[in-house]
Amino acid sequence: MGFNKFVRSKLFFRHLIYAFAAAVVIMWVLLKMLDLYTHHGQTIRVPDVSGLFEQDVRKIIHDAGLRYVINDSVYDDNGVKGSILLQDPAPGTGVKKGRTVYLTMVAVMPEMVSMPNLIDLSLRQAISLLTAHGLRAGQLEYRPDIAMNAVLQQNYNQGAIEPGTLVAKGTAIDLVLGEGLGENLVAVPLLLGQTRDEAIEALLGSTLNVGNEFYLDEEQSGVLVYQQHPDPLSRRQYLRAGSSVDLYYRSPELFDFEAYLEEQLTVPLPMLFGKTPEEARATIEEAGLVAGDEIFEKNVDELIARVYRQDPEYDQDAMIRKGSRINIWYRSLVEFDLDLKTEPDFPNND
């Protein structure tokens, strides 16, 4: 039988159909075997093992049909040493059976860093250099020295620490600074509503220390400063550099800080003496205050009127709550000596 005749025969078409059917069956079997091997359509939810120790993680991961590798460790002051801090894939992620979960553990030993040389640097430079090395400023102590705020000594554990010494990352380094000439008084910053870290940073920037700390709601994380002593709200407070400020904290989850700060925050009392009515009103408005009664004595015209008295009376250290009213009295220029170069002597209320 010739080839052309064979390919036209029923026998050829019958064999071709058998071969095609066999190929379909083989492909179907191979695909099914591949599905079984790869668990196609079957996923496992990655369990949450954060905060657990490896002995517990091992059983949980293996029981889920997965594997794990601890590929990194980091030091965390807030974490439990030896516990799992991070995992990849994240908890709840759908993965195939046998997938490897990569874990990051809280290091048992902290990372060590080299102590920089801070001697003769300014306080601001020293704080920046400590931060760059993963360290932080601790207590500030001032000693007589002509170089104000220059670092005279760097201490750790009540003793001097030499540059190059390895210390744990995050360690607080105490600084001995020169107090310069004079009393070296600094204004106490207003810290209400700030986090603990923000308050400490602000105090260090003002050359002051954190004193006693009180947690009024028994919460020690996520708290904000509720009160401070000395309190600069009523009037400016001054302390010698290196002095301490006590801090009181409350939790914003348990206390309405927004309303509290709105009520408590104050501004310096503005000095209005000698200003025109327009200038006085603008000054009051810019300070977040309200112009109260305006008394023009002898019906003086606004064009020649100047402030000669205000209530509350001006004091350079006085603070006033935002939204407060200031009453103003005006006189004509010809009725009093307007000398803005000297401290004004305000008339009494009589």
Helix content: 10-25%
Summing up helix and strand content along with how strands pair, one would put the structural category as alpha+beta
Number of helices: 7
- Strand tally is 21
By CATH, the topology of the largest domain is: Trypsin Inhibitor V, Chain A
Write the layout of secondary structure elements.
Layout: H1 3-7, H2 10-38, E1 44-45, H3 54-63, E2 67-74, E3 84-88, E4 94-95, E5 100-106, E6 112-114, H4 123-132, E7 136-143, E8 151-156, E9 159-160, E10 166-168, E11 172-178, E12 185-187, H5 196-205, E13 209-215, E14 224-229, E15 238-240, E16 244-250, H6 257-264, E17 266-268, H7 277-286, E18 290-296, E19 305-311, E20 319-321, E21 325-332
Parallel strand pairs: 2-5, 7-11, 13-16, 18-21
Antiparallel strand pairs: 1-4, 3-5, 6-10, 8-9, 8-11, 12-15, 14-16, 17-20, 19-21
Primary descriptors:
single chain; alpha+beta; Trypsin Inhibitor V, Chain A; four-stranded mixed β-sheet; 23% helix; elongated
Word description of this protein:
The chain is α+β, with helices and mostly antiparallel strands. The protein has five domains: 3-38; 45-106, 2-Layer Sandwich (Trypsin Inhibitor V, Chain A); 113-182, Trypsin Inhibitor V, Chain A, CATH 3.30.10; 184-264, Trypsin Inhibitor V, Chain A, CATH 3.30.10.20; 266-335, Trypsin Inhibitor V, Chain A (2-Layer Sandwich), CATH 3.30.10. Helices cover 23% and strands 31% of the residues. It is built from seven helices and 21 strands. The strands form eight sheets. It has a four-stranded mixed sheet, covered by helices on one side. A hairpin with a 2-residue loop joins strand 8 and strand 9. The longest helix is centred in the first third of the chain and has 29 residues, at 10-38. It starts with a helix and ends in an 18-residue tail after the last strand.
